[in-house]
Design brief:
Elements: E1 6-10, H1 14-26, E2 30-34, H2 37-47, E3 51-55, H3 63-70, E4 79-84, H4 89-97, E5 102-105, H5 110-225, H6 230-246, H7 249-260, H8 263-273, H9 278-285, H10 289-302, H11 312-319
Parallel strand pairs: 1-2, 1-3, 3-4, 4-5
Helix pairs in contact: 1-5, 2-3, 5-6, 5-7, 8-10, 9-10
Length: 320
Protein backbone atom coordinates (compact mmCIF):
# COMPACT_ATOMS: atom_id res chain seq x y z
CA UNK A 1 0.00 0.00 0.00
CA UNK A 2 1.31 3.43 -0.98
CA UNK A 3 2.33 5.71 1.89
CA UNK A 4 0.59 9.10 2.17
CA UNK A 5 3.20 11.71 1.22
CA UNK A 6 4.30 13.96 4.10
CA UNK A 7 4.91 17.67 3.51
CA UNK A 8 6.52 20.18 5.89
CA UNK A 9 5.76 23.93 5.63
CA UNK A 10 8.39 26.15 7.32
CA UNK A 11 7.00 29.70 7.23
CA UNK A 12 6.28 32.33 9.92
CA UNK A 13 3.25 33.68 7.99
CA UNK A 14 0.19 31.96 9.47
CA UNK A 15 -2.05 32.89 6.52
CA UNK A 16 0.39 31.33 4.05
CA UNK A 17 0.66 28.23 6.26
CA UNK A 18 -3.09 27.75 6.43
CA UNK A 19 -3.74 28.40 2.75
CA UNK A 20 -1.08 25.92 1.65
CA UNK A 21 -2.14 23.37 4.31
CA UNK A 22 -5.81 23.40 3.22
CA UNK A 23 -4.86 23.05 -0.47
CA UNK A 24 -2.45 20.15 0.17
CA UNK A 25 -4.80 18.28 2.56
CA UNK A 26 -7.48 18.47 -0.12
CA UNK A 27 -4.98 16.77 -2.49
CA UNK A 28 -4.52 13.94 0.05
CA UNK A 29 -1.20 14.93 1.59
CA UNK A 30 -0.20 14.75 5.26
CA UNK A 31 0.89 18.29 6.23
CA UNK A 32 3.08 19.58 9.12
CA UNK A 33 4.02 23.18 10.12
CA UNK A 34 6.93 25.07 11.65
CA UNK A 35 7.15 28.80 12.35
CA UNK A 36 10.91 29.10 11.96
CA UNK A 37 13.98 27.14 10.91
CA UNK A 38 14.68 25.72 14.36
CA UNK A 39 11.19 24.23 14.68
CA UNK A 40 11.49 23.06 11.10
CA UNK A 41 14.64 21.00 11.91
CA UNK A 42 12.84 19.30 14.78
CA UNK A 43 9.80 18.39 12.68
CA UNK A 44 12.10 17.25 9.83
CA UNK A 45 13.84 14.72 12.09
CA UNK A 46 10.59 13.53 13.68
CA UNK A 47 8.30 13.21 10.66
CA UNK A 48 10.77 12.66 7.77
CA UNK A 49 8.73 14.50 5.11
CA UNK A 50 9.24 13.95 1.38
CA UNK A 51 8.83 17.67 0.57
CA UNK A 52 9.64 20.93 2.42
CA UNK A 53 8.24 24.35 1.54
CA UNK A 54 10.70 26.86 3.08
CA UNK A 55 10.41 30.64 3.57
CA UNK A 56 13.69 32.60 3.68
CA UNK A 57 12.76 35.49 6.00
CA UNK A 58 11.90 34.09 9.46
CA UNK A 59 12.81 34.84 13.11
CA UNK A 60 15.08 32.66 15.30
CA UNK A 61 16.52 30.74 12.31
CA UNK A 62 15.91 31.97 8.77
CA UNK A 63 15.81 29.88 5.60
CA UNK A 64 19.54 30.27 4.76
CA UNK A 65 20.60 28.98 8.18
CA UNK A 66 18.13 26.07 7.81
CA UNK A 67 19.68 25.18 4.45
CA UNK A 68 23.18 25.25 5.93
CA UNK A 69 22.16 22.78 8.62
CA UNK A 70 20.24 20.27 6.46
CA UNK A 71 22.84 20.44 3.64
CA UNK A 72 20.51 19.49 0.78
CA UNK A 73 22.03 17.03 -1.73
CA UNK A 74 20.77 15.26 -4.81
CA UNK A 75 20.29 12.06 -2.82
CA UNK A 76 18.58 13.72 0.15
CA UNK A 77 15.36 11.91 1.16
CA UNK A 78 13.31 15.06 0.60
CA UNK A 79 12.78 17.73 -2.04
CA UNK A 80 12.99 21.39 -1.02
CA UNK A 81 11.12 24.37 -2.51
CA UNK A 82 11.92 27.94 -1.40
CA UNK A 83 8.99 30.37 -1.03
CA UNK A 84 9.89 34.08 -0.88
CA UNK A 85 8.69 37.49 -1.85
CA UNK A 86 12.24 38.58 -2.70
CA UNK A 87 13.27 38.23 -6.30
CA UNK A 88 16.90 39.29 -6.20
CA UNK A 89 19.00 37.25 -8.56
CA UNK A 90 21.70 36.90 -5.91
CA UNK A 91 19.24 35.28 -3.47
CA UNK A 92 17.95 32.88 -6.16
CA UNK A 93 21.48 31.90 -7.16
CA UNK A 94 22.50 31.40 -3.54
CA UNK A 95 19.52 29.12 -2.85
CA UNK A 96 20.21 26.91 -5.86
CA UNK A 97 23.87 26.68 -4.86
CA UNK A 98 22.71 25.42 -1.46
CA UNK A 99 20.89 22.51 -3.16
CA UNK A 100 17.21 23.48 -3.40
CA UNK A 101 15.02 21.92 -6.09
CA UNK A 102 12.72 24.84 -6.98
CA UNK A 103 12.33 28.59 -6.21
CA UNK A 104 8.75 29.88 -6.06
CA UNK A 105 8.09 33.64 -5.81
CA UNK A 106 5.23 35.15 -3.85
CA UNK A 107 2.43 35.71 -4.59
CA UNK A 108 1.64 32.20 -5.98
CA UNK A 109 -1.55 30.29 -6.58
CA UNK A 110 -2.57 27.09 -4.78
CA UNK A 111 -2.65 25.37 -8.14
CA UNK A 112 1.08 26.12 -8.48
CA UNK A 113 1.69 24.79 -4.97
CA UNK A 114 -0.26 21.55 -5.57
CA UNK A 115 1.27 20.98 -8.99
CA UNK A 116 4.77 21.64 -7.70
CA UNK A 117 4.18 19.36 -4.68
CA UNK A 118 3.00 16.51 -6.91
CA UNK A 119 5.94 16.99 -9.30
CA UNK A 120 8.58 17.19 -6.55
CA UNK A 121 7.30 14.09 -4.74
CA UNK A 122 7.12 12.10 -7.98
CA UNK A 123 10.68 13.10 -8.88
CA UNK A 124 11.98 12.31 -5.41
CA UNK A 125 10.29 8.90 -5.43
CA UNK A 126 11.68 8.23 -8.90
CA UNK A 127 15.12 9.16 -7.62
CA UNK A 128 14.77 6.78 -4.69
CA UNK A 129 13.51 4.01 -6.96
CA UNK A 130 16.38 4.65 -9.35
CA UNK A 131 18.86 4.54 -6.45
CA UNK A 132 17.28 1.30 -5.19
CA UNK A 133 17.47 -0.28 -8.65
CA UNK A 134 21.06 0.86 -9.07
CA UNK A 135 21.94 -0.64 -5.69
CA UNK A 136 20.22 -3.91 -6.63
CA UNK A 137 21.98 -3.86 -9.98
CA UNK A 138 25.32 -3.30 -8.33
CA UNK A 139 24.58 -6.07 -5.84
CA UNK A 140 23.60 -8.38 -8.72
CA UNK A 141 26.79 -7.45 -10.54
CA UNK A 142 28.85 -8.19 -7.44
CA UNK A 143 27.12 -11.54 -6.97
CA UNK A 144 27.51 -12.36 -10.66
CA UNK A 145 31.17 -11.40 -10.59
CA UNK A 146 31.67 -13.57 -7.52
CA UNK A 147 29.91 -16.51 -9.20
CA UNK A 148 31.94 -15.96 -12.37
CA UNK A 149 35.16 -15.93 -10.34
CA UNK A 150 34.12 -19.07 -8.47
CA UNK A 151 33.07 -20.79 -11.70
CA UNK A 152 36.25 -19.69 -13.43
CA UNK A 153 38.28 -21.15 -10.58
CA UNK A 154 36.28 -24.39 -10.73
CA UNK A 155 36.73 -24.56 -14.51
CA UNK A 156 40.44 -23.87 -14.16
CA UNK A 157 40.69 -26.70 -11.65
CA UNK A 158 38.65 -28.97 -13.93
CA UNK A 159 40.79 -28.06 -16.96
CA UNK A 160 43.97 -28.72 -14.99
CA UNK A 161 42.59 -32.07 -13.81
CA UNK A 162 41.49 -32.93 -17.36
CA UNK A 163 44.89 -32.02 -18.75
CA UNK A 164 46.52 -34.26 -16.14
CA UNK A 165 44.15 -37.08 -17.05
CA UNK A 166 44.92 -36.54 -20.75
CA UNK A 167 48.65 -36.69 -20.03
CA UNK A 168 48.18 -39.85 -17.98
CA UNK A 169 45.94 -41.33 -20.67
CA UNK A 170 48.48 -40.44 -23.34
CA UNK A 171 51.26 -42.04 -21.26
CA UNK A 172 49.12 -45.13 -20.64
CA UNK A 173 48.21 -45.31 -24.33
CA UNK A 174 51.88 -45.15 -25.30
CA UNK A 175 52.69 -47.85 -22.76
CA UNK A 176 49.82 -50.03 -23.99
CA UNK A 177 50.89 -49.42 -27.58
CA UNK A 178 54.43 -50.58 -26.76
CA UNK A 179 53.10 -53.59 -24.86
CA UNK A 180 50.73 -54.38 -27.75
CA UNK A 181 53.58 -54.24 -30.24
CA UNK A 182 55.71 -56.43 -27.98
CA UNK A 183 52.80 -58.87 -27.58
CA UNK A 184 52.20 -58.94 -31.33
CA UNK A 185 55.87 -59.65 -31.92
CA UNK A 186 55.74 -62.39 -29.27
CA UNK A 187 52.63 -63.85 -30.90
CA UNK A 188 54.28 -63.81 -34.29
CA UNK A 189 57.35 -65.53 -32.87
CA UNK A 190 55.13 -68.04 -31.06
CA UNK A 191 53.15 -68.72 -34.23
CA UNK A 192 56.38 -69.29 -36.12
CA UNK A 193 57.58 -71.68 -33.42
CA UNK A 194 54.23 -73.50 -33.31
CA UNK A 195 54.14 -73.76 -37.08
CA UNK A 196 57.68 -75.08 -37.10
CA UNK A 197 56.80 -77.53 -34.34
CA UNK A 198 53.73 -78.70 -36.25
CA UNK A 199 55.79 -79.04 -39.40
CA UNK A 200 58.47 -80.98 -37.57
CA UNK A 201 55.86 -83.17 -35.89
CA UNK A 202 54.11 -83.80 -39.19
CA UNK A 203 57.44 -84.53 -40.81
CA UNK A 204 58.33 -86.92 -37.98
CA UNK A 205 54.93 -88.63 -38.16
CA UNK A 206 55.16 -89.01 -41.92
CA UNK A 207 58.69 -90.31 -41.69
CA UNK A 208 57.52 -92.79 -39.07
CA UNK A 209 54.63 -93.97 -41.21
CA UNK A 210 56.90 -94.03 -44.25
CA UNK A 211 59.31 -96.28 -42.40
CA UNK A 212 56.42 -98.47 -41.28
CA UNK A 213 55.20 -98.73 -44.85
CA UNK A 214 58.66 -99.34 -46.35
CA UNK A 215 60.42 -101.34 -43.63
CA UNK A 216 57.68 -103.22 -41.82
CA UNK A 217 54.61 -103.44 -44.06
CA UNK A 218 56.32 -105.48 -46.82
CA UNK A 219 57.36 -108.13 -44.30
CA UNK A 220 53.88 -108.22 -42.82
CA UNK A 221 52.47 -108.75 -46.29
CA UNK A 222 54.97 -111.59 -46.88
CA UNK A 223 54.01 -113.15 -43.56
CA UNK A 224 50.33 -112.91 -44.51
CA UNK A 225 51.11 -114.87 -47.69
CA UNK A 226 53.06 -117.55 -45.86
CA UNK A 227 51.64 -120.60 -44.20
CA UNK A 228 50.72 -119.58 -40.66
CA UNK A 229 48.77 -121.39 -38.08
CA UNK A 230 45.79 -119.77 -36.37
CA UNK A 231 47.79 -118.56 -33.40
CA UNK A 232 50.43 -117.00 -35.61
CA UNK A 233 47.74 -115.29 -37.73
CA UNK A 234 46.18 -113.81 -34.59
CA UNK A 235 49.54 -112.46 -33.46
CA UNK A 236 50.14 -111.04 -36.95
CA UNK A 237 46.75 -109.32 -36.94
CA UNK A 238 47.48 -107.79 -33.52
CA UNK A 239 50.83 -106.50 -34.78
CA UNK A 240 49.14 -104.93 -37.83
CA UNK A 241 46.41 -103.34 -35.71
CA UNK A 242 48.97 -101.83 -33.36
CA UNK A 243 50.98 -100.48 -36.28
CA UNK A 244 47.81 -98.94 -37.73
CA UNK A 245 47.06 -97.35 -34.33
CA UNK A 246 50.47 -95.66 -34.35
CA UNK A 247 49.50 -93.51 -37.37
CA UNK A 248 46.15 -91.68 -37.37
CA UNK A 249 43.84 -91.78 -40.42
CA UNK A 250 44.79 -88.11 -40.97
CA UNK A 251 48.48 -88.93 -41.20
CA UNK A 252 47.80 -91.80 -43.56
CA UNK A 253 45.65 -89.53 -45.73
CA UNK A 254 48.40 -86.89 -45.74
CA UNK A 255 50.99 -89.51 -46.50
CA UNK A 256 48.86 -90.93 -49.28
CA UNK A 257 48.48 -87.42 -50.73
CA UNK A 258 52.19 -86.67 -50.53
CA UNK A 259 53.04 -90.04 -52.08
CA UNK A 260 50.74 -89.23 -55.03
CA UNK A 261 51.73 -85.57 -55.61
CA UNK A 262 54.93 -83.91 -56.74
CA UNK A 263 56.63 -81.28 -54.55
CA UNK A 264 55.19 -78.40 -56.64
CA UNK A 265 51.71 -79.98 -56.64
CA UNK A 266 51.88 -80.23 -52.83
CA UNK A 267 52.70 -76.49 -52.66
CA UNK A 268 49.78 -75.67 -54.96
CA UNK A 269 47.38 -77.88 -52.96
CA UNK A 270 48.38 -76.17 -49.69
CA UNK A 271 47.73 -72.73 -51.20
CA UNK A 272 44.37 -73.91 -52.58
CA UNK A 273 43.43 -75.05 -49.06
CA UNK A 274 44.28 -71.53 -47.83
CA UNK A 275 41.63 -70.13 -50.20
CA UNK A 276 43.96 -68.64 -52.84
CA UNK A 277 42.89 -68.35 -56.47
CA UNK A 278 44.92 -69.19 -59.56
CA UNK A 279 46.37 -65.66 -59.96
CA UNK A 280 47.35 -65.44 -56.28
CA UNK A 281 49.04 -68.85 -56.38
CA UNK A 282 50.91 -67.91 -59.56
CA UNK A 283 52.13 -64.71 -57.84
CA UNK A 284 53.22 -66.51 -54.67
CA UNK A 285 55.04 -69.33 -56.47
CA UNK A 286 56.31 -67.05 -59.25
CA UNK A 287 54.90 -69.25 -62.02
CA UNK A 288 52.40 -68.65 -64.80
CA UNK A 289 48.66 -69.04 -64.35
CA UNK A 290 48.72 -71.67 -67.08
CA UNK A 291 51.20 -73.72 -65.05
CA UNK A 292 48.95 -73.38 -61.98
CA UNK A 293 45.99 -74.63 -64.02
CA UNK A 294 48.07 -77.64 -65.13
CA UNK A 295 48.95 -78.46 -61.51
CA UNK A 296 45.30 -78.12 -60.48
CA UNK A 297 44.32 -80.54 -63.25
CA UNK A 298 46.95 -83.07 -62.11
CA UNK A 299 45.88 -82.78 -58.47
CA UNK A 300 42.22 -83.42 -59.37
CA UNK A 301 43.28 -86.38 -61.45
CA UNK A 302 45.47 -87.93 -58.73
CA UNK A 303 42.86 -87.61 -55.94
CA UNK A 304 40.07 -88.95 -58.13
CA UNK A 305 38.13 -85.78 -59.00
CA UNK A 306 38.69 -85.86 -62.77
CA UNK A 307 35.42 -85.40 -64.64
CA UNK A 308 33.57 -84.46 -61.43
CA UNK A 309 32.18 -81.02 -60.46
CA UNK A 310 33.33 -81.36 -56.84
CA UNK A 311 35.08 -78.25 -55.46
CA UNK A 312 38.80 -78.98 -55.24
CA UNK A 313 39.43 -76.87 -52.11
CA UNK A 314 36.50 -78.39 -50.20
CA UNK A 315 37.71 -81.90 -51.09
CA UNK A 316 41.26 -81.13 -49.99
CA UNK A 317 40.05 -79.63 -46.69
CA UNK A 318 37.70 -82.55 -46.06
CA UNK A 319 39.98 -85.43 -47.01
CA UNK A 320 43.51 -84.13 -46.57
Amino acid sequence: MKKTPKILIVDDDRHVQMAITIALINEGYEVYHANDGKQGLKVLHEKEPELIFLDLKMPVMDGYEFLKVVQVKHDSPFALVVLTGHDEDLAIKRCYEMGIDFFLKKPFSMAEICGLARRCIELKRLERERARLLAELQDSRNQLEQRVNERTFELSEAVASLEEEIREHHSTSKKLERETIALQESNIALQVLLKRRDQEKAQYDMELIGKIEKLIRPYLDKLKGSKLNASQKNILNLVEQNLNAIGSPYLYSQLSLFIKLTAKEIQVSNLIKQGMGTKEIASVLDISTRTVETHRFQIRKKIGLQGRKTNLRQELLKTY
